[in-house]
Amino acid sequence: MITVDGLSVFAGDKALVRNVSFEVGAGERVGLIGESGSGKSLTASAVMGLLPEELHATGSVVFHGKQLLSASERELSRLRGNDLAMVFQEPMSALNPLMRVGRQVAESIKLHNRGAPARETAQRLLESVGLPDVFRAYPHQLSGGQRQRVVLAIALANDPALLICDEPTTALDVTVQAQVLDLILVGVAERSSALLFITHDLAVVARVCERLLVMLDGEIVEEGTTRQVLTEPRHEYTRKLLAASDLEAA
Ligand SMILES: Nc1ncnc2c1ncn2[C@@H]1O[C@H](COP(=O)(O)OP(=O)(O)OP(=O)(O)O)[C@@H](O)[C@H]1O
């Protein structure tokens, strides 16, 4: 469904992501883990066509048969928020502070989903993330966890084939984290969406992902099923990550 092949990201001639290759199959939940600065977010941004101007990507990212690295901005923006959706760490960056959240959800529903009026669909989406009463609220009136649930409702609005989450719960309280993770899991399961989940938190990937990719200094150094990577890590770096985490090293 999405195939990343030999992806590199450069700042000038300095490679920040080097020769990264992986696939995410339809409906699959894959985790991208590694320490801060290992290149996880840049990999996701390159896949989404959201790299800042000073960076450039080489290699290949094929999504539903289409080469994204050479796609026009117009094609990319048609894909984003449609077949390809993303949830970032900081929900305020994805929301318009001046618009009621119900309207923001309604506006994200694309025309082809116009069976029911967008307002009703938006309300149903908000209910599905446990927010039946926030339609007329502004983002600042909500808690961080509620805002992230609104962002999730927007990301899921058009039943994306692939949802990319970049540290979606890192900024939230621990109790709220679990709730948002569950909503992500239910949301992708109901739609058979694939999930690429970026985090440095191994307890989170253990709960969410079927397969893991481990990044170090811009490269993928290990890959396997979640169970394999967390119980029989092959790379020294993965062992260190496990030792440094709260996970019971099995
Ligand atoms: N616009 C940029 N220009 C130059 N270097 C950058 C730029 N953006 C990121 N980098 C560098 O690229 C490397 C990878 O960054 P990236 O944000 O992908 O890491 P990460 O694994 O997602 O870490 P974090 O969890 O902290 O977000 C880092 O060393 C970072 O400093």
TrEMBL record:
Residues 2-242 form the ABC transporter domain. Gene3D superfamilies: P-loop containing nucleotide triphosphate hydrolases. Keywords: ATP-binding, Cell inner membrane, Cell membrane, Membrane, Nucleotide-binding, Translocase, Transport. It comes from Amycolatopsis sacchari. The keyword ATP-binding applies. GO terms for cellular component: plasma membrane. This is ABC-type dipeptide/oligopeptide/nickel transport system, ATPase component. GO terms for molecular function: ATP binding; ATP hydrolysis activity. Its main location: membrane. It comes from the Bacteria. It is found in: Cell membrane. Belongs to the ABC transporter superfamily. Signal peptide: none annotated. InterPro entries: AAA+_ATPase (IPR003593), ABC_Ni/Peptide_Import (IPR050388), ABC_transporter-like_ATP-bd (IPR003439), ABC_transporter-like_CS (IPR017871), P-loop_NTPase (IPR027417). It is a peripheral membrane protein.
